[in-house]
Amino acid sequence: SNRTFTMVKPDATGKGYTGAILDQIIKAGFSIKAMKWTKLTKEQAGEFYAVHKERPFYGELVEFMSSGTIVAAILEKENAVADFRTLIGATNPANAEEGTIRKKFAASVGENAVHGSDSDENAAIEGDFFFSALERF
Ligand code: ATP
């Protein structure tokens, strides 16, 4: 598919990195098909990350993702899911390639600046979580 879903996470919005991150995403050839500023409740963050429920960091992840503003967006580009994961870099910024968004803007494996869907199926599910048909094109 040619779409993926992203969030600028609360660490990055709080540090004022949103503009620079969106700029890098657009310059890499992604177009924004939907976007919103919002804040998740703990319940909503828990539901979004339900797939990680059994992981030891789940509680920390839910706390963090509901701690501040996020920017959610649907992005379009050829080979969107894989190309976006290359653009953001490894989950742990210590292992991320030079020039990637996480290398530049992430502080730690938990507070890692951005989310990127890991499959076409999850990109569709995650986009539907945040956006109605009227909010995207
Ligand atoms: P994302 O799904 O956000 O794009 P990812 O696919 O690179 O991230 P996952 O392994 O799916 O990474 O983990 C989901 C999120 O959980 C990570 O982005 C990070 O915020 C958090 N996380 C992962 N591992 C840890 C950890 N060891 N400690 C704390 N938080 C973690």
From TrEMBL:
Q: Which residues cross the membrane?
A: none
GO MF annotation list: nucleoside diphosphate kinase activity
* Entry-linked InterPro entries: NDK-like_dom, NDK-like_dom_sf, Nucleoside_diP_kinase
Superkingdom is: Bacteria
**Function of the protein:** Major role in the synthesis of nucleoside triphosphates other than ATP. The ATP gamma phosphate is transferred to the NDP beta phosphate via a ping-pong mechanism, using a phosphorylated active-site intermediate.
Assembly, in brief, is: Homotetramer.
Protein name stated in the entry: Nucleoside diphosphate kinase
Upper taxonomic lineage: Bacteria, Pseudomonadati, Bacteroidota, Chitinophagia, Chitinophagales
